[in-house]
Amino acid sequence: MDPIDRSGNVLVLLRAPSSLGYDPDFQRGGRHMAKVTGLGGVFFRAQDPKALAQWYATHLGLVVDPSYGGVRFEEDAARPGFTLWTPFAQDTGYFGDPAQPFMLNFRVDDLDALLAQLRAAGVWVDEQREDGEYGRFGWIRDPEGHRVELWQPPG
């Protein structure tokens, strides 16, 4: 993967430990350095966390574990995909609303079927689709107005 995408954004690939996305021998000045080894979570503020969690459970199948208030994803070697950490330019239009400081991207198993389900449930679905070497992409908005990217990896 090219570390700079077509919009000039720096892409940093974080992979599961079986396929490292970091340099285990990272050094600076000839000395071994501590480093990030993967994405540990995504944490964000919500106007109504309980209602938003329920919406994600209903429409995207993300069921919150009440013991810690989140959803845990296990890497699955049988399913393609990886996790990206990517800073975007401040003026990017990719997230939609300029006031949105981040965008979630969820891996999905069947983009067309999921988008049809969401549309039937009254969820705002962007008519734009993108098909390319990294897979298929579609976008929706959650009830708090966040643009959410849905990604079906190739394969």
Could you please describe the fold and organization of this structure?
With 155 residues, the chain is an alpha+beta fold. The protein has helices at 49-60, 111-120, and strands at 12-14, 27-28, 31-32, 83-85, 104-107, 130-132, 135-141, 147-152. Residues 10-18 have low confidence and may be disordered.
Write the layout of secondary structure elements.
Blueprint: E1 12-14, E2 27-28, E3 31-32, H1 49-60, E4 83-85, E5 104-107, H2 111-120, E6 130-132, E7 135-141, E8 147-152
Parallel strand pairs: 5-8
Antiparallel strand pairs: 1-4, 2-3, 6-7, 7-8
Structural class: alpha+beta
Question: How far is it from the N-terminal to the C-terminal residue, by CA?
Answer: 17 Å
Sheet of most strands: 4 strands, mixed
What pattern of helices and strands is seen along the backbone? EEEHEEHEEE
Name the poorly predicted regions. 10-18
Q: What's the arrangement of strands in the largest beta sheet?
A: 5-8-7-6
* Arithmetic mean pLDDT: 83
The amount of helix comes to 10-25%
Helix segment tally: 2
Give the overall shape. globular
**Rg over C-alpha atoms, rounded to the nearest angstrom:** 17 Å
Strand segment count: 8
| Share of residues in strands | 15-25%
